[in-house]
From TrEMBL:
<dbReference type="InterPro" id="IPR016181">
    <property type="entry name" value="Acyl_CoA_acyltransferase"/>
</dbReference>
<protein>
    <submittedName>
        <fullName>GNAT family N-acetyltransferase</fullName>
    </submittedName>
</protein>
<feature type="domain" description="N-acetyltransferase">
    <location>
        <begin position="5"/>
        <end position="155"/>
    </location>
</feature>
<dbReference type="InterPro" id="IPR027455">
    <property type="entry name" value="Sper_AcTfrase_N"/>
</dbReference>
<dbReference type="Pfam" id="PF00583">
    <property type="entry name" value="Acetyltransf_1"/>
</dbReference>
<dbReference type="InterPro" id="IPR000182">
    <property type="entry name" value="GNAT_dom"/>
</dbReference>
Length: 158
């Protein structure tokens, strides 16, 4: 099944609906909430946070946040870094994560990116297998938070 999503700017009109999207309780140690993502974005303006709500029809089903076209520096990986990818607990397993990544890849490639980075907390239940299945590979780096850094060569994606 192919899902149809839209990446939508977060506004006062949809902020509550987007903040209501939550992962399963057992995933909370791996993926920060939308509310926490907004806090991180406000605390790190130098990371040039770019975020969007993910909609399927009229329903908010996820959230995505990147560092957009930044000069890498201590604590900020770039130029394009997938900072947050969140799919609501009630719609997981339907292809939304891959659909979101497909949209993100198309957008960052159109902006001139050749590589997309992300990181994840290691451990049972980590999203690392999902990212690796999509094509991300470990860089061999562990970031300052103990997360495994992964990179996606955008030339390998359609």
């Amino acid at each position: 099944m192919t899902v149809q999503i839209r990446l939508v700017e977060v506004t006062d009109d949809n902020r509550d609906a987007v903040m209501a999207v939550r992962v399963r309780p057992d995933q909370e140690r791996f993926v920060a909430s939308v509310e926490k993502s907004f806090e991180h974005a406000a605390q790190h303006p130098g990371a040039n946070p770019w975020f969007r709500a993910v909609y399927d029809g009229d329903d908010a089903v996820g959230f995505v946040m990147l560092s957009w076209n930044v000069t890498p520096q201590p604590g900020i990986r770039g130029p394009y870094f997938l900072w947050r990818l969140l799919v609501g607990a009630d719609v997981q397993g339907r292809g939304y994560g891959s659909a979101i990544l497909n949209e993100v890849v198309a957008l960052v490639r159109a902006a001139g990116a050749t590589e997309l980075f992300t990181s994840c907390v290691p451990g049972e239940g980590s999203p690392e297998p999902f990212y690796r299945g999509y094509g991300f590979v470990p860089t061999g780096e562990i970031d300052e938070d103990g997360e495994t850094v992964l990179a996606l060569d955008l030339s390998t994606r359609p």
